[in-house]
């Protein structure tokens, strides 16, 4: 239903633009009135626009975008920064010592043109006030408090009393530690390049098989939190323009690709069966470009049983990070509930 309403609104919006263009044409002063040739070109453009109207996706009609604000552990706080910062220089903002994504534009109809910060809140954060530190040009820093709301974890967590046999070889343990270190280092890298501001495309067009934040407890102690969402589908595509910064076979993630979208926003694709041969580390990837085929590579922890269980059902594990923390990817999908 939401999809239909939005589409209708977008189409009306475009019609209004067309009507407006036609009306203003006749009001132009004689000197810049459209020539017949120009008019026919305009008609052709309008005609072709009309023909392609049905193929317009909502992404193109909703070119500017923010994640859905959800200021709780594992969520994203979308914060309007003070107008006094001006608009010319990009403010340097930190959360828990990590540089934060900022974007300069009106956030909603009511707001003016000011900087907006997207702050990723770690799953481990405690509810309450947390400071956002803004470095000012005068060298002094100032703080804004973010009110982190209590978590609303889904109830799909697994509690186990039987300890899993840590059936990992020392080589596997070493690889797991190396994998974690590599990912951590990369998602904490700062690339100030302006990111793609269009709405994220769904990476698989499939359905969700496992939620973000699903937890596994062992004797009441948290053993594992799911730091992404699992999606069904055939192939994974990039939801936005970016740069491929890692292609690696990880112990848990299997064949994994990491994309840097700029300003601390990264997306991760795991358990792939194969990676598109055109995808190379260090190269740009376009929104909608295929990353690879979805598969069962890698392993997972099976509560109470196995630390190196095989993945049985093909799926994409999709992760999204901001300021070095994994956040709920669903907040970046317009249609996600
Ligand atoms: Zn997963």
Report what the structure shows:
The longest helix is centred in the first third of the chain and has 26 residues, at 2-27. The protein has 3 domains: 2-61, no CATH class; 76-148, Immunoglobulin-like (Sandwich), CATH 2.60.40; 158-332, Glucose Permease (Domain IIA) (Distorted Sandwich). It is globular and about 55 Å long. A hairpin with a 2-residue loop joins strand 10 and strand 11 (221-225). The chain is built from 4 helices and 22 strands. The chain is an alpha+beta fold and 337 residues long. The model is unreliable at 1-63 (pLDDT under 50). It starts with a helix and ends in a 10-residue tail after the last strand. Strands 9, 12, 13, 14, 15, 16, 17, 18, 21 and 22 form a 10-stranded antiparallel beta sheet that branches. A 4-stranded antiparallel beta sheet has the order 3-2-6-7, with no helix packed on it. It has a 3-stranded antiparallel beta sheet with strand order 1-5-4, with no helix packed on it. Helices cover 19% and strands 34% of the residues. Zinc ion binds next to loops. Residues 210, 226, 228, 230, 317 line the site of zinc ion.
